Structure formats: C-alpha cells, structure tokens
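Hi C.,

You asked whether I'd gotten around to modeling the 210-residue construct. I have! Everything is below, sequence then structure, no commentary in between.
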Amino acid sequence: MQSNLLPLAKEGIPYFLSSVLLLVLALVFDLDFLSFIFLCSTLFIAYSFRNPERALCTLESTSFLSPVDGIVQSIQELENHQYAYKIEIQSGYTDVSVLRAPSNATVSKFIKRNGTRTSKNSKLFEILNENIEIHFTTNEDNTFKVVHRLQRSFAPLFIDLDDTQKLLQTARYGLMLNGLTTIYLPQNFRVNITIGSELKASESLMGYFS
C-alpha cells in the first residue's frame, strides 16, 4: 500500500474491473438502462477509491497529521484514562479513503476485528462493527492509539501493517471507505483543531507532542 502510486487504490481495482465488465456486457446486449446503471457505478467506484498524491509537509518531528480525510465530530478530554484526549473524525464516500501515518512511528500492536457494517446511529455500532485498533509509538517515545471503524460500506477495511513495522509520516497503510476514526492522544499533546474542522490525510496538522 505504501508504494502504490496508481491513481486508483489497488484495493479498488477488482471492484472497478467488475463494474467495467458489467458495463461492457450491457453495451454488447444493448441494455440501455443497465448500461447507464453500470456506468454510474464505475464512475462511483473510481471516485471512491481514488488515490491522489498529497503534498508532503515539512514540519517538526513532534508534529501529528490527520490519518484520514473527514470532519472532526468531537474532541473530548478524558479523566482517569491511559490517554488524555479522544478525537473522532467522520469520513464519507466523498472523502479520499486512503489511510496515512500521522507521524514517524512504530506499530507496537494492532487488533483487527471482523464484524457488521451498521449505521453509526445503531446502539450496537461500537460493539459489532468491523474495526481495527492500532497502537503506535513515536521516535520520541510518545504513544497514541488509532481506531478505524466501518459504517455502511460495500468494501471491507483494508489494512497493510505488520507488528513492529516502522512508518514514515504520510506513508499509506490502508483504506477505509465510509467510517469513523477515533484517535487517543496522551497528556503532552497540544490539540490544534476544533470541532467541525475539515481534515485531509497527511496535510492537516492536528497538533504537536510537547
């Protein structure tokens, strides 16, 4: 995933080719309505799985960039918890779905949980939905946790990580199509965003570790 420079994320290629094949068959058999449907689906899939290059920011080593495209839904201060801040970012189908490393860090642990893809409004959303929990440690020994949880999506959660893997800031490490990202940050983090902020993966500064 990290070295994929194609305009379409590799995870979306099977969906794209399947839709193109159905479009060609509909055209061959002169099925106008189905041709229109499959044309729309092909364009939708290409847009959903787009893989644009992003400008690489030159920031301090303690900087923390957004790992996803989306809108900040909430910022909470946690008490009696391992982490001091909890930030939730909502990503939709119109957002770029590629996930990127928010800082230079090592994967200390990650847990993938298969599940359903219910709406965020469901009472069982946090319990049943497919998700992955990733623990990171930065080069300065700061720890943080990122949880990606799918909502209603036609594609699973794609993650390309290994235990103890080292990631450079902005490196691609997966893909999430329509989901919620929750980030847990330590006490020494300075938050640089507000609720409602529109974020772009690898470009939007969320704050610094002090």
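If it helps when you're writing up: The first helix runs from residue 13 to 28.

Thanks,
B.
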